[in-house]
Amino acid sequence: MKKFAYSFPILEHKIDKWLSFAEEINTSKNDEFSQMHKRIGVKKESWFLQKSNDGYSVVVYTEAESDDFLENFKNDTSDFSNWFRKEVSELQNIDLNYKTQMPIKVLDWEEE
Questions:
Q1: What's the rounded Cα separation, in Å, for the pair 25 and 42?
Q2: Rounded-to-integer distance, Cα 67 and Cα 51, Å
Q3: What does the DSSP 8-state code read for residue 48?
Q4: Which residue from 66, 63, 64, 47 is spatially nearest to 8, judged by alpha carbons?
Q5: pLDDT tens for residues 19-43?
Q6: What are the residue ranges of helices labelled H in 15-68?
């Protein structure tokens, strides 16, 4: 299993809408979110809201079958994935259709 961690800014004036979006993903859209992850090869994903002096960010931890999960996501043209990309674009001012530069993993420790 491949592990990834990355972050994206959230527009500060849209933080309440972003929190509602996250709640919607956790509740009424959870089945669709799960189905999307199956299609793109993601086995686990966690979101963390981070506040700093620069504003808010979402820190995402993902476990996926391969390095291709972002490309798979970009190529997923389901109604849900299209909706998801549109919402993220509006709330975070990022375009998930472009290749995202993943951070370089420098430590991956686990208790054995």
A1: 15
A2: 28
A3: E
A4: 47
A5: 999 999 999 999 999 999 999 999 9
A6: 15-26, 30-40
Write the single-letter amino acid at 63.
Answer: E
| CA dist., res. 70 & res. 101, Å (int) | 10
55-64 β-sheet, strand order: 2-10, 55-64, 42-52
CA distances from 56 to 15, 64, 75, 97 (A): 8, 25, 28, 22
Does the predicted TM-score (pTM) go above 0.85? Answer: yes
| % helix, strand, coil for the chain, step of 5 | 40, 25, 30
In whole angstroms, give the CA distance from residue 102 to residue 70: 10
